[in-house]
Every structure is written in C-alpha cells, then in structure tokens.
Design goal:
This protein has helices spanning 45-56, 71-87, 103-118, 142-145, 147-150, 171-180, 204-222; strands at 2-10, 13-21, 30-35, 60-64, 95-101, 125-129, 158-163, 185-190. By secondary structure, it is α/β, with parallel strands linked by helices.
Length: 224
C-alpha cells in the first residue's frame, strides 16, 4: 500500500491531497474521494484510517484538504478533485464514490447531485460520515441541510454512518428524511457515538475498525 501526497490544481491555487492505493496498481477500478469537516484537514485520523482500510481492500482513496467554510466553495474544490482523479493516467478508474465527514459529506452530496444532472454515471455512490443534519439544538434547519441528499437520483446509492448520540443529527428526523430519498440508502447507527464518532468507554481504534468494516462491506456490495 502507498500513501502519496499530491497537489490538486484549483483555480490559481492548489489543494493538498493524498492518494492511497494498493500495491497492485493496475487492478484498481474503483476510487473513493474523502474530505474532512469544518475543522481539521485530510490527515484527520478517521479519514486516514478509512483510506488505509480501503487501499488494503483493493480500492484507491483520494483525500483532500479544503478549509473554506462556505459550502459552495467546498463543492467547487470537490469538483476540482473529481476532475483531477478522472485525469490520472496511472489508474484505470471506472467507478468513483464521493464522501466525507460532516460538512465534507454535505459537499460530497451536493457535488453528486450536480454531476448527476450532467451525466448519468459520473458518481457511483455517496458516503456520509456524521451527516450534519442541523446545528446543535436547531432541528428546524434539517430540510435545508438535507436538500442535496433528497435530490440525489435513484441510481446513486448512499451509505450513512452516524452516532446515536450525535447532537447534529436527530435520529427520528434523519430516518424520516431517508424515507424521502429516491435511491438505495443504508444507515449504520454507531451505538453511543457522538458527532465525532467517539463512544464513551470504547477505544478510538475499535470504533474506527467497526466503521471501516461497514464502509468496506458496503463498497463491496456496490460492485455486485
């Protein structure tokens, strides 16, 4: 497995990114793009752990840093990363799944919706880690926050991983929103998990292993 730092052109600047891929480079056909939430960067432990797990199971993972807090700006940056991935000559990527953590997965869902309007098979799925359905204590924002997820076409599968104690994702509201989605949605509720997907009384590594296993299992189903 290799983890290589790269620079992704974005307007007049570049975005910091990292490509993580298995040793058998020629056999990689599916790529996952990941980005962080409102805080942190591409080296956030959860993203690095998931990227390594994906590479260990034969997938390419490109994670990137974009610190802007404006969602529109984030989506433009995500689009630049998607374009970069499509242009890579070293890999024969046929399937791209976009995802992220918190605000990062909102940007992923927005990009997937935008791309689906342009081309039917631009994105093969979306991974949402701790989707921020609403700010803490402001559940009224859930309709606006979930608009892009609800707007995804029926041929875009979605995986959501959220903690049962996440103060930015009311479980009842979230499950109601999922019923409105057109495509196939799988939800894994991490028992006792907060918005950072940490669980009281459990080691961080054991939680990451559990989350990674769910993502890998879901990824494997997408190729069937």
């Amino acid at each position: 497995m290799s983890d290589v730092t790269v620079k992704v052109p974005f307007g007049t600047k570049c975005l910091d990114a990292a490509l993580c891929f298995p040793a058998s480079v020629t056999d990689v056909h599916t790529a996952v793009v990941l980005t962080h939430g409102a805080g942190g960067d591409m080296n956030f432990k959860h993203l690095v752990s998931l990227a390594h797990a994906l590479a260990a199971h034969g997938f390419l993972c490109l994670r990137f840093t974009c610190k802007g807090l404006n969602l529109g700006y984030r989506v433009k940056a995500y689009r630049a990363v998607w374009d970069y991935l499509k242009s890579l000559q070293k890999f024969t990527v046929k399937h791209i799944i976009v995802g992220g953590r918190s605000m990062g997965c909102r940007a992923a869902a927005a990009l997937a919706r935008q791309l689906s309007d342009e081309s039917q098979d631009a994105v093969q799925g979306v991974i949402c880690l701790s989707f921020p359905l609403h700010p803490p204590g402001q559940t009224h924002a859930h309709r606006q926050r979930s608009e892009d997820l609800r707007g995804l076409p029926e041929d875009t599968p979605v995986l959501c991983v959220s903690g049962t104690e996440d103060n930015m994702c009311d479980k009842v509201l979230f499950e109601g929103m999922i019923k409105e989605m057109k495509g196939q949605v799988e939800v894994f509720w991490l028992k006792g998990g907060n918005h950072g997907l940490t669980v009281k009384g459990r080691s961080e590594d054991s939680v990451l292993d559990e989350v990674n296993l769910h993502v890998i299992t879901w990824m494997s189903k997408q190729g069937e």
